[in-house]
Amino acid sequence: MPKLLIQGSVTIPGRYSTRGFLAAFAFTVVQPVSVICVMDHTEKNDDFPRHGLSGHKTLFGYYVYVFPYFANMRSPITVFMAVVFVTAQLAARTEIAAIMASGVSFRRLLVPYAVGAGLLGLLTFAVVGWVLPLGNKHRAAGTTRGNAARLLAVVGFPVSFW
């Protein structure tokens, strides 16, 4: 495999496939996660104003941290969907047959997918290692504290305990 990467520079079909793969991944992550965030907002729409959160605080104080969480949960299936989508597009336009007929091996055809998957793996590693812990800390501080304060108020502890 390293011989394939060292063998030649990145070719035009390789850049084309990698760009299409990353664009399809971005679309298949952003679009459904946006719908999930809208559904989450409609579910929690009454709670935000009740706790004194404006639209700006809700968007930049809650959904900035929730969006990467939902995107990370969906990333494995969206990588698969992006690979299938890009490969189906290449096959529908008979570009795979043309690439194979020009003498490119099947292994060399898979290198752009491996590069794209490696980039997405590094991105997921960074998100899981640095972004999600920070987001979970902020998200948990907002939701757990409110739920715990309500629970303590029901049990009989003063809410100022927190």
Tag the structure with descriptive keywords:
162 residues, mainly alpha, 6 helices, 85% helix, elongated, disordered C terminus
H/E element string? HHHHHH
Average predicted confidence as pLDDT:
81
Note the quaternary state here: single chain
Using DSSP, what is the number of strands? 0
Number of helices: 6
Question: What is the rounded Rg?
Answer: 23 Å
Largest sheet: none
User: Approximately how much beta-strand content do the residues carry?
Assistant: under 5%
**Low-confidence parts, pLDDT < 50 over ≥5 residues?**
148-162
| Fraction of residues in H or I helices | over 70%
Structural class: mainly alpha
Task: Specify the overall morphology.
Answer: elongated
Distance between the termini: 57 Å
Summarize this structure briefly.
The chain is mainly alpha-helical. Helix content is 85%, strand content 0%.
Provide the fold topology:
Layout: H1 2-7, H2 12-44, H3 47-50, H4 55-92, H5 95-101, H6 106-155
Helix pairs in contact: 2-4, 2-6, 4-6
Give an overview of the whole structure.
The radius of gyration is 23 Å and the shape is elongated. By secondary structure, it is an all-alpha fold. The model is unreliable at 148-162 (pLDDT under 50). It is built from six helices and no strands.
